Amino acid sequence: MKNTITRRLTILISFALTVSSILVAFLGALLSENFKSDSRGRESISALSAVAQCTVQYKDGKIDKDTYESIVRSASREDQIQYIVINSDGSVLFNTEEIIDSAAEKKIIDSFKKVLDGKETFLKLCESTKKPVELAGVPVIRNEESIGAVFAIEHMTDFLPERKSFMQSVIVSLIIVIPFIVLISYLILKRIVKPIKNVVEVALSMIEGDFSIRADETLKDEIGFLGRTLNKMSFDLYRNVSQLFIEKNRLQKVLNSLEEGVIAVDEDKNITHFNKAFLEMFHLTEEAKGKCVDDIEIISRDLYELTQAIEKKYSIVKNCNNEDRIMRVVITSIEDEKNSVVGAVVLFRDITELEKLETMRKNYVANVSHELRSPLTSIRGLIEPLMDSIVTDEKDVKRYYNIIYQESLRLSRLVDDIMELSRLQNDGTEIDKTFVDLRSVIEMVCERFKLQDEGVDIIYKSEPLPKVYTNYDRIEQVFVILLDNACKFTHRGGQIEILTEVREKDVLVTVRDTGIGITAQDLPYVFDRFYKSDKSRSKKGTGLGLSIAKEILNIMGESIRVESDYGKGSSFEFTVHTEEVI
After folding, report:
1. d(Cα 582, Cα 579) in Å, to the nearest integer?
2. What distance in Å separates the CA atoms of residue 243 and residue 411, rounded to the nearest whole number?
3. Are residues 298 and 279 in contact, defined by beta-carbon separation less than 8 angstroms?
4. pLDDT by residue (tens digit) across 162-220?
5. How far is residue 269's CA from residue 344's CA, in Å, rounded to a whole number?
C-alpha cells in the first residue's frame, strides 16, 4: 500500500510541477511578447497620428486624393505597416493593401466605436490566420470632433523564430528536469508516507482487536502528534475492551451460577443473553441466542405479556404451569440513559419443590393437629365423667384410668417421634458410626418381637455376616420400626421373613411380610410424615416410623426402598455398608 500511495503521489506531484513549469514558461513568453509589442506599438502610434493628420487635410481638401494615397502608401512601405482609414460611418476610406486579415478585421470592428469616440487608443497583440500581428488604432480628430479612425496592422514575424526557440528550450528542459522532479518527489513522499503507513497499520490492528502495535511518536510535526494521539486512543480502547471483556465474563459467571433461568431480550423480543440454567430448564441449545421469543413455543405461551412490559415500562410477576413444573416468571423492562426501553430481563424460577414443601407443611400441621387432638380428646372425654363423679364403680374407674394412661403414652410417643424426626432433619445432625455385628442385632430384635406373641411367625435363618460400619442404636431403631410396621399390617397367623444378602460393599437386609400390602397409589408416599394407608387412621401408630427410618438411613449414607403387592404383602429393603464410606 505504501508503494501505491508513493507512486500515485509522485506521479501527481510531478505532473503538477511539469504543468506549472509549462504554464509559467508560456506566461513568461507571452509577457515578453506583449512587452515587445507594446514598445513597438508606442512607436507606431506617432506614425498613426501623422496619417490621421494627413486624413484631416484630405477631408478639408487641402490635398488631393492621389497625394493623400501616395503619402499613406509611402508611410506603409517605409514602416512595413498596413494602414486602414475608416470613416465615421464605418466605411473604409483607404486601405494600403487590398485584403484585410479576418482576425484583424474582427478586432477592428469590435474596437472601432471606442476609437471613434476618442476615448482610448487601441493597441492589441493578436494572432492572425498565419502569424502574429499587432493592431493599433487612433481617432481622426477635426475641430475636436472625431470623423473617423486610422488602424495599423504590423506583422510580428520576428516572434516566430523566438517562439520556436522557446518551445525547443522548454521541451529539452522538461526532458532533463522531469526525471529529477520524479526522483526528488519520490524520495520526499517516501519519507512522508512511511509514518503515515505506520499510523494506518496501527489503526488496522486496532480494528482487528490487536492493541499491542504502537505508532511512531518521535516525529515532532502533525504526524507525530497523530501517532501520540492514536497510541493514547489505542491504550484507552484496550483498557475499555479489557474491562468490557471482564465484565462480560463476570456477568456470564454470575448468570451461570444462578439456579434460576435468566434471559435478556431486546426491544424486538430477540434473545441476547441467557444462562445454562435456562437452557437446561427448557431443554434448549445455544442456538436459541438471537431467536425471537415468539418463535420458541415452549416459552412463548408464558411470555405473552412481554410486549406489554417492554412498551409500558413495568414489571410482571406471575406463576405458570410448564409441563409438570410450576414456574414463577418475573419480567422487568430495561431502560437506557434516556429512559427509553431497550429490552427486558426475564427470570424463570422453578418453584415446584417449594409448592410441594408448602403443601407438605400444611399437611404436616394438619396431621400433627389431628394426631395430637385424638389422644387429648380421649383423655378429656374420660376425665370429665370422673371429675363429675358420674363413674363410681371401682372397676370402671380403674378401666378409665388405664385408658387415660394408654392415651398419655400414645401422646408421649407421638411427641417423641415428632421431636426425633425434627432432630434427624436438622442439617447439622451427625451419627457416629463404628463396626457392628449385624447378625446379633437382627437376632436380638427378632427375639424381642417373638416374646410379644403377636400371633405372627417371624422367620430368620441366622448365617455368618461381616461386620458392618454403622451406628448400633440407630440400625436397631430402623430394624425395630420395620418389624413393628410389618406386625401391625400382618394378620394373626401371617408370616414375617428377614433376609440378608452379602454384597461387594454392603449387606442388603429385607423385611418381607404377608400382610395386607400397599396399593400402587399409596406406594410413593409410604415414607412421608404422618402418611397412613388406612385413611380412617384406625390402625395404631403415629405415621412417623417409616419417615424416621428413612431419615436415619439417609444420614448414614444408606438407602431404603419398598415393594408391595396389595393383598399379598410388602417387602422393605435397606443397605448397610461393610466399610467406611468416604
Report:
1. 9
2. 66
3. no
4. 666 666 676 777 677 777 777 777 777 666 667 777 777 777 777 777 777 777 677 77
5. 8
- Chain centre to alpha carbon of residue 458: 72
Nearest CA to 58 among 83, 93, 90, 84? 93
Q: Cβ(293)–Cβ(265) under 8 Å?
A: yes
With contact defined as beta carbons under 8 Å apart, do 347 and 262 qualify?
yes
Scanning the structure block, which residue is given the C-alpha cell 430481563?
A: 345
- Strand partners for 495: 457
Distance of CA 124 to the CA centre of its chain: 76
pTM: 0.42
d(CA 273, CA 290): 9
The DSSP element (H or E) to which 174 belongs, if any, is: helix 159-207
pLDDT one-digit tens code per residue, 452-488: 767 888 888 888 889 999 888 888 888 888 888 888 8
CA angle 93, 98, 99 (to 5 degrees): 110
- Nearest CA to 137 among 179, 185, 177, 105? 105
3-state secondary structure of 324: coil
Q: 443 and 460 in contact (C-beta within 8 Å)?
A: yes
Which residues are CB-contacts of 545 (< 8 A; sequence separation ≥ 6)?
A: 417, 481, 484, 485
Q: In whole angstroms, what is the distance from residue 346 CA to residue 327 CA?
A: 12
DSSP string covering 382-412? HHHHHHTT----HHHHHHHHHHHHHHHHHHH
Please state, in angstroms and rounded to a whole number, the distance separating the CA atoms of residues 346 and 320.
Answer: 14
